[in-house]
Amino acid sequence: MADTKNYRIGVDYKLYTVGDNGERVLEEETTKDVPFRYLSGFAMTLDKFEEETVGLNVGDTFDFTIEKEDAYGDYFADRVLDLGKDMFSIDGKFDAENIKVGAIVPLQNEDGARFFGHVLEITDTTVKMDLNHPLAGRRLNFVGSIVEKIEASAQEIQAMMSHLAGEGGCGSCGGGCHGGDCGSCAGGCGGCK
To answer: Superkingdom of the source (predicted)?
Structure first.
């Protein structure tokens, strides 16, 4: 019988992107002191990542690769847009403090869906924004170990269910996915998926 419990899992890992030639480039690294944490069963991370780690125990190691189709999909050139600079104005003044080259900024479309864009370039009239996930089009290799695995408490599960229902979440605590952690999200931001 499959284990259907929800766990708070802490993972210490190195994330590499893998090129077509097999060359690996380190993209991200967590530590045992500041691991990546997620609650299993709530789609807080890539499905394949959870599949590979949820059955492991503290001290177990892993080394697996997720194909781009099971990660963030293909990179689409048509998701790089030139947006009017006036879209980023507050009281008629361009928001230069937050909208700068290299910044990851929260956006919202006309239907209210929220997502992030990466600022590539700013001209006198436009902001070039990449709406692809930063790891789109890449194979991902995770190498690491499980540093924490605890059955989630009823309070943690309730907090996650409230977050998924739109009550609170990373935006309400001033955190956000790009910050990597949000206390009200049980240690991570489900929107970072």
So the answer is: Bacteria
Residue 163's pLDDT band, with cuts at 50, 70 and 90, is confident
Residue 26: the pLDDT is 98
CATH architecture label of 7-72+136-162? Roll (3.10)
What CATH architecture is 77-130? Answer: Beta Barrel (2.40)
Could you tell me which of 46, 41, 43 has the C-alpha nearest to residue 5? Answer: 41
- Give the DSSP letter string of 24-74: EEEEEE--SSS-EEEETTS--S-HHHHHHHTT--TT-EEEEEE-GGGTT--
Average pLDDT over residues 71-94: 95
Q: Where are the domains of the chain?
A: 7-72+136-162, 77-130
The residue behind tokens 């910044």 is 103
- Say whether 2 sits in a helix, a strand or coil: coil
